[in-house]
Amino acid sequence: MPTPMEVYQLLPMTNCKKCGESTCMAFAVKLIRGEVGLEACTPLFEEDRYKDKLSKLQELFETVEGATETGLVIDTDKCTGCGNCVVACPVNVANDPHGTAVGRGPTNDRVILRVKDGVVVASNVHECRRFGKNRILCDLCIVTCPSGAIEFV
Amino acid sequence: MAGISRLIQAPEYEIKILIISDIFQSAESCRGRISREYQDLSAVVYLDKEDMKAWSIKDGMNVTLFNENGKIVVTGRSSKEEHRGIGLMPPSIYSMRLASFDETSGAIPLMVDARIRRGDGEVTGIRELCKKI
Amino acid sequence: MSTQVTATCPGCSCLCDDIEVVIEESEIREVGNACRKGASLFLNPDHPAYDLDAAIDEAIEILKNAKSPAIFGLDNTTIEAQRIAIKISEKLGCMIEDYSSIRYGDLLNFVVSSRIKTCTLDDVRDRADISIFWGSDAMSSQPRHLSRFSYFPRGEHKQKGWEFDRYAISIDIYRSPTAKVCREFLKVSPGQDPALMDEILGILSGKPPGSKELLKFSNEIKKADFGVIFAGSGLIHGLNRDMDKLIWFMEGLNEYGEFYLIPMVKGYNMRGFVEMMKRAQRQIEGSFLRALLDGGIDAALIVGADPMSDLPYSLSKKLLDIQTIVIDPRDTPTTEIADLVIHTGIAGVDNGGSAMRMDGVEFELVPCIKRDTPSDEAVLTRILEGL
Ligand code: SF4
Ligand code: SF4
Ligand code: SF4
Ligand code: SF4
């Protein structure tokens, strides 16, 4: 995943504030977290001299295609379907106390993570603790994964 | 003659092979153990990155593993973990070609002494290993 | 029209019984909750049809003509098939063996006869404070073990969540995927497991610890009311098969809390075979491997196993010299060299039966689709009748 510095260097670096952020760096951080879209930086699109930077940025964020709105990306090639993340996710536990919370398959549709055809799939991602107004930096699905299959971008 | 062939062969190094389960290989083995997919996941040795540098082995390069029990050509892959001098292989007809049976204890070893060298042609086919030599 | 059934997975000795299978036009379309390994079993295509009657006649011929046949494998088949295989061995007066003593020495016998204290995986989920993976790598061999029982789930007396309620440690000669997700990893040099046991019991009785990790681990043992060792073949190797040492260590731990051991068996029904042998009042006589090596066998009936891939070449090459009948759902190097292959279905997918989880709890395997492929049990029954 790109670092804020890498993204920053591809932005106009003028701190013009047109995007609503006070600095390009702040914008870069939010961009990586998926909290803002590239289009908010209007100079990138309006000024021809940023053409190369723009295409590089678009390329960079295209690679994280498949990311959900919270930036949750699952590399299904790495996933073993062990279900550690499914059982450890606090939202799964809260929403499905008789299924995933006790180590079994989900008993309802309100879970975020579940295993299908041997790999994890995500739904209801808006409920993820990393998302929304009261977000926290939850990383339980990441630290419980034996194969590094989950990332947030 | 033997001297010349040794000269043109890549240098050999000592290696310990640790035979350990790999979930991807074992998932594939549920479907069968003759297929190309199974071969690709079994005919491999995961090597320490530093060892690879020292032995001039690149990720994806074929390597020859041999000892008094036999010889196989497999793909060398770089391991995510550090284990100097140790190569990881999943249990299969490949790793078993190098393993010896401990007649006193009756155990099948998890750790095998072997030697490694770069190259030497195609990866040994599974059917080839089923034949009598 | 699609239907959904709940199935039990014979992918490993966890026997997960919460697998959601979606069936459409008598084919499995989707598999929920099973890990990668389990899913690949359920999503396996069927075998092409073959002449079963002829195959069974041939198997009977081979066994009848053999002077010293043997039956081998059996850890990946149902209890019902195991029982019949035991009967065949009685009828033929021949050796029968699975992989349990090859891989685990006397461990299974000690567990089954209660000489080593054991508990169920449900007890683990509901009560365990500490899970010790010793020479076992669940994440690679029993992928849902930690999520279903030994680390992550809430249980009856474990309501706060794994971060607060449980401690998991991996003791192994390398940093396995299980070690990566456990709280602690203790690296042990090959063969140093007995010394490590001495050291742990030493620290518990007040000796100074050799490392911070060991001190932490010992403190966790002291804190724990309920602990479990998940013993893998790595531990058996590390102990050089010395079961007395293990019994001594377990007794030592039990002075600090309730400590149990569950063997992390390979083969979904190895535990079942050991139990069935005990119930049939049979013991493994001799060793299949040694007999194979010494040329003491002239025919082998191999059920649900792939010795060509499991045994060192010095042994497996002997299979090429004898008559071999292989009963297995898959194509393997062993079916490749066999004189006769009888492809069977997978229990829990194509056929029914029952099996024992690693902790000895029995589960029924109900077929989820209808296919013509016969079960191991059906094939073995017909062989027994024909003898
Ligand atoms: S609009 Fe673009 S150039 Fe202006 S501050 Fe935001 S990121 Fe920087
Ligand atoms: S970050 Fe936390 S809440 Fe979000 S999916 Fe992962 S475990 Fe669940
Ligand atoms: S913990 Fe990792 S490997 Fe396991 S199911 Fe989740 S994403 Fe897949
Ligand atoms: S953990 Fe074992 S029993 Fe459970 S789904 Fe995976 S392979 Fe099947």
UniProtKB/TrEMBL annotation, chain A:
The keyword Iron-sulfur applies. Residues 1-59 form the 4Fe-4S domain. Gene3D superfamilies: 3.30.70.20, Electron transport complex subunit B, putative Fe-S cluster (1.10.15.40). InterPro entries: 4Fe-4S_dom (IPR007202), 4Fe4S_Fe-S-bd (IPR017896), 4Fe4S_Fe_S_CS (IPR017900), ACDS_complex_subunit (IPR051069). PROSITE patterns: 4FE4S, 4FE4S_FER_1, 4FE4S_FER_2. Residues 70-99 form the 4Fe-4S ferredoxin-type domain. One of its GO terms (molecular function) is oxidoreductase activity. Keywords: 4Fe-4S, Iron, Iron-sulfur, Metal-binding. This is 4Fe-4S dicluster domain-containing protein. It comes from Candidatus Syntropharchaeum butanivorans.
TrEMBL record, chain B:
Pfam families: Molydop_binding. Residues 35-93 form the Molybdopterin dinucleotide-binding domain. GO terms for molecular function: molybdopterin cofactor binding; oxidoreductase activity. InterPro entries: Asp_de-COase-like_dom_sf (IPR009010), MoPterin_dinucl-bd_dom (IPR006657). This is Formylmethanofuran dehydrogenase subunit D. The lineage of its organism: Archaea, Methanobacteriati, Methanobacteriota, Stenosarchaea group, Methanomicrobia.
UniProtKB/TrEMBL annotation, chain C:
GO terms for molecular function: formylmethanofuran dehydrogenase activity. It comes from the Archaea. SUPFAM superfamilies: Formate dehydrogenase/DMSO reductase, domains 1-3. GO terms for biological process: methanogenesis. InterPro entries: Formylmethanofuran_DH_bsu (IPR016457). This is Formylmethanofuran dehydrogenase subunit B.
